[in-house]
Amino acid sequence: MVVEPADAGQRLDRYLGGPLGSRAQAARLIEAGAVRVDGRVLPKRHEVRAGERIEILPEQALPRPEVVEQVPFGIAYEDEHLLVVDKPAGVVVHPARGHRSGTLVQALAGRAAGGEDPGRPGIVHRLDRDTSGLLVVAKSEEVHRVLKDALTARQLHREYLALVDGVPSARSGTIDAPIGRDRRDRVLNSIDTDQPRPATTHFRVVRTLAGSALLEVVLETGRTHQIRVHMAAIGHPVVGDRQYGGPVRFGLRRQFLHAARLGFTHPITGEELDLRAPLPADLEAALAAAAGRVQPTTRI
Length: 300
Known about the structure:
Blueprint: H1 12-20, H2 23-31, E1 35-37, E2 54-56, H3 58-61, E3 74-78, E4 82-87, H4 104-107, E5 132-138, H5 141-152, E6 157-165, E7 172-176, E8 180-181, E9 189-190, E10 200-209, E11 212-219, H6 226-233, E12 257-265, E13 272-276, H7 281-290
Parallel strand pairs: 5-12
Antiparallel strand pairs: 1-2, 3-4, 4-5, 6-11, 6-12, 7-10, 8-9, 10-11, 12-13
Helix pairs in contact: 1-2
């Protein structure tokens, strides 16, 4: 193809994203050396110029078989445009330092697409490794863009269940406290930060238990570890959350945090989706222990 004057100035991966179906696919081909600009291999950040001739080598442009890793996860909803995954605790969403394999993205190879980062195809929002529950994954560039816009506009309803230490003094409330990297411990996020980003969390007490409370938590923003940081900040850390000071009780081996409900408008059909994921067995057992129905056994 030859770059038209109207397209000049676009990044190479963005320019090819349309004809190839997704920017992530374009980036993969560019990084594989399958794309030539006037006969040269150029980086994906190259800004195309009018008159440049762009070629994709046919033998390298064909879809390559991808290794689908065996990672456990459930499906709450799926069609040709997107899927909503019910992620178990212990599964990392995408490759990162210390987690190069065994991720959800690798388990979804060939089923997810869209987004600027080829290492995170289709991922619209994330869950921590040890947080279970629902997240939506796109299957195309268009769907990813619409869902990302909805996330930014706060039109994705994300509702969590969290068991916290102690009982909040109010039955419901809003925590409006910016979050960023902690000033002293760069591994943690905190409200004590030099790089604050707006963060708002709403909560409602669902049930009070001996020394703890089950909360329904709704995110207005989506900062890293937001619920865990905000709960700790008001003196009610999530039970089992060692990283942010939560006590290890009720036999828990991870934080009691579950993305229980996800609601949004389908970006293609316009259908209103309202999906729910029941508590997994370990959190059900912890809740029963907190209620005194079984004898808790704490494992460290």
